[in-house]
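@channel sequence for tomorrow's demo:
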Amino acid sequence: MNRLNIILVITSVMCFFLVFKTSDEPLIISGEFFELAFRQFTLGNTILFNLCSGLLISIWFYFLVVFIPEAKRKNRIKKHFIMQYHQFRKQVVICILSACGESGDADLINSLIIPSKFKTYFDGKDKTDQNRWYVFMNNADEVIVKNILAEFIAFKEMISYLLNNIDIEDEELHTFLHNFNTITTILVNTRADDYDSMKGFSRYLRPIFAGYSWKTGSYDYDRFGNMFDRI
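structure tokens (generated this afternoon):
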């Protein structure tokens, strides 16, 4: 709930109180405290009653017609977006495993979408005693790279849809989403047969999936997932 909605809630509570205070109807609750609190003003009770009643109805109308349907729509979009994000990570992991010559069952794939487990697994050795990440980079041909980029482009479209349909007030999150789209735009020019191109590809790909920042180093949580939870 943003600041405006909080102000409206507080205003509606105040209006609700003033409607009872300025009403000509007798109190249904007895007691010295209630009689003192809801005692009418000396002047202006009718004006205040009409103003507060109209404002209260308008605020409730806003929440019923605008806020609640919009909140439900936002939750639907967010839920679908988070689902697409997990699917994006799974599909890229499948592509990376394929390049390593490994298929991976559902449990392995689901575990590797967690950055700490991804890092541990691909920093480890394969059956030939080679680092899995280097095996992936050496075996990533045009088809593998194209498939990974297709997942990035699909998720980029989902982010664009999100930005176009939800007003994201969190400036850090808004910038984060735009930066991801910028990264994707850069990555689409990756060529599997070009060393420098693949080096740049690895420099963007590994931090996203292994949980790494060039500024702060490694982290054990899904930074992307945590940012998306703030939508």
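heads up for whoever presents: DSSP finds ten helices and two strands in the chain.
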